[in-house]
Amino acid sequence: xxIPSLDFYQGKIVRLYQGNYGLKKIYxxxxxxxxxxxxxxxxxxxxxxxxxxxxxxxxxQNFLLxxxxxxxxxxxxxxxxxxxxxxxxxxxxxxxxxxxIGSAIFEKKNxxxxxxxxxxxxxxxxxxDVVVKNNFIEVKISGWKKNTGKDIHDVLYDFCLTGVRHxxxxxxxxxxxxxxxxxxxxxxxxxxxxxxxxxxxxxxxSLQDIQDLKRIGIKDIIIGKALLENxxxxxxxxxCWQKELFPA
Length: 248
Known about the structure:
Layout: E1 2-9, E2 12-17, E3 20-27, H1 31-40, E4 45-50, H2 51-55, H3 62-68, E5 75-79, H4 85-94, E6 98-101, H5 104-107, H6 109-119, E7 124-133, E8 136-141, E9 146-151, H7 152-160, E10 166-171, H8 183-192, E11 197-201, H9 207-215, E12 220-223, H10 225-228, H11 234-245
Parallel strand pairs: 1-4, 1-12, 4-5, 5-6, 6-7, 7-10, 10-11, 11-12
Antiparallel strand pairs: 1-2, 2-3, 7-8, 8-9
Helix pairs in contact: 9-11
């Protein structure tokens, strides 16, 4: 499905370029109106990123998240600085339906595995942000500043035994560029792990990108900048997705 996304930094809607805070663009949009428009277009899920939390897990925008997560008739998945169980409990108490966990996968691997079991495979999304170098797909953490030295396949193999169902994979070199998604990356992942629901993120710029991702088996497409910059409308994105689901 189509999952619109908004990133927030110091209370404002922004987009970074390849994760660089020094290359952020501010969008003067009202988040409530934006999300309501998505609801009117039958969007069921929405992705929220707390960039303050990404920078500092003790400096989350809970005041803003509390307002956003009160919006009815849509399910929110939220990421940004989730490092401990209390972070998860807080987001669920505010109304989040899913939490997105990234750096903690490496910093607290065994705890993350326990969280998947405790909260359920439909409540936890693993976020794997990668840089592709030849045949090595390295996962980065801490706002994409820290190398893990781990290939994405090593991580997925390790977590498969937990029954993990949802994985958000971002090609860092594509994020915020509007240069199109890494089709070959997602095609490879879908083929190797057919039991995982992959969410693609990064580079979406056209309706053709949506069609291409749908055709290789991607279940969810996160779209941020393309919608903010009116490359296409949410109405067009939903119709494109449905057309791929039910071709003439």
